[in-house]
Amino acid sequence: MKGTSADSTSADDGGLTEAVQQAGAVELLLIRHGESEGNVAATEAREAGVEVIEVPARDADVNLSGTGRDQAKALGTALGRIAEEFRPDTVVSSPYARARQTAEIAVETAGWPLQVRTDERLRDRELGILDRLTRLGVENRYPGESERRDWLGKLYYRPPGGESWADVALRLRSVLAELNSTGMGQRVMLVCHDAVIMLFRYVLEGLSEKELLDLAAREAILNASLTKFVRPSGVGPWTLESFNVADHLAEQGVEVTQHAGDTSVRPR
């Protein structure tokens, strides 16, 4: 690892040297997965005005689309341009196939000698009984849940068997606590999902419910986009350096996609 001696590693430290384990994280690079087959199916279902999204597998097993794989390669090319001393010490992905595939393709394309780790706390929000339903499907099949969702808003509404955004935020707080307590590295790359990136902003910037939902209503996290937080001292609060950047896709002639979720997020 950069700036450290290779002989200070041990078999159970995840490949991180003692010096890196003891240092506080200084950079957090958040990446949304590339376009997935589920993204495509959900967009097609909404545009067709149908109730059910015809996905090819359970949410955890949905693969990248062809465009998503191209996006992951373009991402890897862009990451490969990062100077060695500024490259991530570790790459951690949601275990969901679309995120893991994005991470693995990007790391391989970048030529980084890193193994992609997975952490279930980075998984997408679980929708419970509303899984695979469009907004129209929820309104027609579960009108009571549709009213409750509109009343509570996206931060606090928890569908039966699923999670609220607040539940996801709790997962992320524990991930962030480990950045220092277990030495994930000084520069950490996390490959995850659009809601997860929004909620990292909520947690790291101390946003209010209104600020978070206003942001979610006006911004869609682009597939294979980059969001970066920094804190040069390795301690204290984080600063947002860049958000939702996908210039690397357009520069390489790869389609930029967003596949936003339901934008009706504020309580009524």
Q: What does the radius of gyration come to? A: 19 Å
Model regions low in confidence, pLDDT < 50 over at least 5 residues? 1-22
| Helix/strand order | HEHHEHEHHHEHHEEH
Strand content: 5-15%
Description:
Helix content is 40%, strand content 12%. Strand 2, helix 4 (97-110) and strand 3 form a beta-alpha-beta unit. With 268 residues, the chain is an alpha/beta fold. It has a 6-stranded mixed sheet, sandwiched between helices. Helix 3 (66-79) packs across helix 4 (97-110) and helix 8 (194-205) runs antiparallel to helix 9 (209-218).
What would you say about this model in short?
The chain is α/β, with parallel strands linked by helices and 268 residues long. The chain has helices at residues 18-22, 37-48, 66-79, 97-110, 135-141, 143-152, 165-181, 194-205, 209-218, 247-251; strands at 27-32, 90-93, 116-118, 187-192, 226-230, 239-245.
Write the layout of secondary structure elements.
Layout: H1 18-22, E1 27-32, H2 37-48, H3 66-79, E2 90-93, H4 97-110, E3 116-118, H5 135-141, H6 143-152, H7 165-181, E4 187-192, H8 194-205, H9 209-218, E5 226-230, E6 239-245, H10 247-251
Parallel strand pairs: 1-4, 2-3, 2-4
Antiparallel strand pairs: 1-5, 5-6
Helix pairs in contact: 3-4, 5-6, 7-8, 8-9
